[in-house]
Design brief:
Helices cover about 60% and strands about 10% of the residues. It is mostly helical. The protein has one domain (about 10-140): Arc Repressor Mutant, subunit A, CATH 1.10.10. Helix 6 (about 85-100) crosses helix 8 (about 120-140).
Length: about 140
């Protein structure tokens, strides 16, 4: 991959700096893993954009996929270790929004904030990463990865 500059912020934006890529990564952390599940997200991504972003994230090594044993048309997407390492960024963006925007968040976000309000940021991040890795391991056991 070629980057626009030597700036670390610019470099990460080259990888995931569009709205849809970050939302796909968010959805993967929320245990969505199929094209159909991504299509069910409230932002209503167009199918062609979703296909493009999944391909791009895969080419960049942020996500990968496995086929279902019983249906080779169905891909189950998952975050690679590089993708999992984006969780602290997703967490901080969520907290920044909660603390700085005067917005009514959806039920999923409100439930997540409520579940984690008594925990430190470090605890939420490590717990969420551990949970995702356990779910990914279960996926690996179901499919040929």
């Amino acid at each position: 991959m070629e980057y626009r500059s030597g700036c670390p912020i610019s470099n990460i934006l080259d990888l995931v700096g569009d709205k849809w890529s970050l939302l796909i990564i968010r959805d993967l952390f929320s245990n969505k893993s199929t094209f159909k599940e991504f299509m069910g997200s409230p932002e209503k991504i167009a199918t062609n954009i979703l296909s493009d972003r999944l391909k791009s994230l895969s080419e960049k090594g942020i996500i990968d996929f496995a086929y279902a044993h019983n249906n080779k048309k169905t891909k189950y997407y998952y975050l690679t270790d590089i993708g999992i390492n984006l969780y602290p960024i997703i967490y901080e963006m969520s907290m920044w929004s909660k603390n700085n925007l005067n917005v009514e968040f959806n039920t999923i976000a409100n439930d997540w904030f409520e579940e984690n309000k008594s925990l430190s940021g470090e605890k939420v991040i490590s717990s969420s990463i551990d949970d995702y890795k356990a779910n990914r391991k279960d996926l690996f056991l179901k499919f040929e990865v």
